[in-house]
Amino acid sequence: MLAVKNLNTHYGNIHALKGIDLEVKQGEIVTLIGSNGAGKSTTLGTITGLLRATSGEVWFKGENITSIPPSQIVKKGISLSPEGREVFPALTVEENLQLGAYVRKDKENIRTSYDRVYELFPRLFERKKQTAGTLSGGEQQMLAIGRGLMSMPQLLLLDEPSLGLAPNLVVMIFDLIVSINQQGTTVLLVEQNASMALSIAHRGYVLETGKVTMTDDAKILSDNDMVRKAYLGNI
Amino acid sequence: MILQQLINGLALGMVYALIAVGYSLVFGILRLVNFSHGSVYAFGAHIAMVFVGMQFGIIPALILSIIFTGVLGIAIDKIALAPLRAKKSKAIAALITTIGVSYIIQNLLMIVFGSQTKFFPKLFDYGNVHIGGVSISTTQLFIFGVSLALLLLLTFIIRKTKIGLAMRAVEQNPKAANLMGIDVDFVITFTFFLGGASAAIAGTLISGYYQVVYPTMGFLAGLKAFSAAVLGGIGILHGSIVGGLIVGVSESYAAAFLGGGYRDAVAFVILIIVLLVKPTGLFGKKGVVKV
């Protein structure tokens, strides 16, 4: 479904991605794990066109989408729930979701998408008239994911959905990611919380300073000694 | 006398509100004070004068002026400001550019129309309506009605339409708006069109009120409307409207009670006082909280 080939991205003089290759197949949850500055968010930024690749290619469903602007990417069926949530603080929950469906023309079906999001996140339904800035961190994260689903993406990119959340909320968010995936959305998940990410993912990629150093089934990665030492915090 | 000046002030204030809204719209989206806005207003008045002179009638002249001036607004952004954004240059560069653009427009108006003061026919003049001891001219009613309708329309666009929602989204978080599939450049273009269009209407209405048009007419009106926008809290639509009315009414009272010499100063005195007490303006909030 998504294929990233030898992707290179620079921030000014800093070579942030040094030839990344990765693949996401339809129906999978794939996770990118790695420490701060490994290039996880940069990878998502380059896939969505927020950052420009210096070389390499991004293919989605047989189409080269490498230098397409971000506003067009969402029309192709890719949606990003960005790091730090990036909700619209002065707009209501409902308006935030409405913006998620901005590119859609099928007015009748948009209603169904609201229902689906409210079913996944009943808290958002309770607060739909509240401005997003008044929500708690966890609720904002739900809103960011819900907003990402409103465009009915085939591929949902999630950037650090557990960041800054209490442990019980993290478990809940990961359960919801699994449900979203089971309902037919392919997921590419970027996480620092490697143990949680590997527990729900089918496959994983380990990123270190802009390079993929390891890739395998999630189960195998979480049993790997090096991964355990470096990212899972147990020996 | 007090009531009479209030009426005069409100009609004038509605026009300031229209100009102030133009500052606010652009500031909301780009965090930029567009100092060319006063000259855009003068441009709108001149275009309306041309078409009124060609016997188009006031409404068609107004509509044509809206279109031409709206396009001028877009052109300013595309030619002078968008390239600066693309290069991520400092905010001050864009600010100075708008001052330069202001003089370019003003001088072009002088070259094409001459720098002298020109006559503009009184708008919608059917004499005066007397209520109690107050005399309201039909011109004032027309100004008030058109401005009000336009301000309501702008509020409707921003609050209730899809493009309005996109404008508010870009204002709060351009990056996230982009991720939603919003074409941020188009939203900016549309905003400049709205700003130009409201300046054109303001310019036409004020010219029909004072019956004069001249290239530098936008300087003082622009500064006063800018004060009105800051007074109400720049970037906030209803703030600009209230600010405009305050500036208009106080100017009208100053002219009546303090003499004509003070009429232009009073807007700035009020601005300074409000900013001392509440630096964000009457309706202003402290910078948008991003969590």
UniProtKB/TrEMBL annotation, chain A:
Domain ABC transporter: from-to ranges: 2-234
Keyword Transport annotated: yes
Keyword flag Nucleotide-binding: yes
GO biological process: L-amino acid transport
InterPro entries the UniProt entry points to: AAA+_ATPase, ABC_branched_ATPase_LivF/BraG, ABC_transporter-like_ATP-bd, ABC_transporter-like_CS, BCAA_Transport_ATP-bd_LivF, P-loop_NTPase
Gene3D superfamilies from the UniProt entry: P-loop containing nucleotide triphosphate hydrolases (3.40.50.300)
A GO molecular-function annotation: branched-chain amino acid transmembrane transporter activity
Keywords associated with the record: Amino-acid transport, ATP-binding, Nucleotide-binding, Transport
PROSITE patterns xref list: ABC_TRANSPORTER_1 (PS00211), ABC_TRANSPORTER_2 (PS50893)
Family stated for the protein in its record: Belongs to the ABC transporter superfamily.
Identification of the protein by name: Branched-chain amino acid transport system ATP-binding protein
Organism of origin: Anaerovirgula multivorans
UniProtKB/TrEMBL annotation, chain B:
Main location: membrane
An example Gene Ontology CC term for this record: plasma membrane
Example of a GO biological process term: D-alanine transmembrane transport
GO molecular function terms noted in the UniProt entry: L-isoleucine transmembrane transporter activity; L-leucine transmembrane transporter activity; L-phenylalanine transmembrane transporter activity; L-valine transmembrane transporter activity
InterPro entries in alphabetical order: ABC_transp_permease, BCAA_transport_permease, Peptidase_S8_His-AS
Keyword Ribonucleoprotein found: no
Pfam families, per database record: BPD_transp_2
UniProt entry keywords in alphabetical sequence: Amino-acid transport, Cell inner membrane, Cell membrane, Membrane, Transmembrane, Transmembrane helix, Transport
Matching PROSITE patterns: SUBTILASE_HIS
Residue ranges crossing the lipid bilayer per the database entry: 6-26, 92-114, 134-158, 179-206, 265-284
Source species, domain of life: Bacteria
Membrane topology type: Multi-pass membrane protein
Family, similarity comment: Belongs to the binding-protein-dependent transport system permease family. LivHM subfamily.
Record protein name field: Amino acid/amide ABC transporter membrane protein 1, HAAT family
Organism (species): Anaerovirgula multivorans
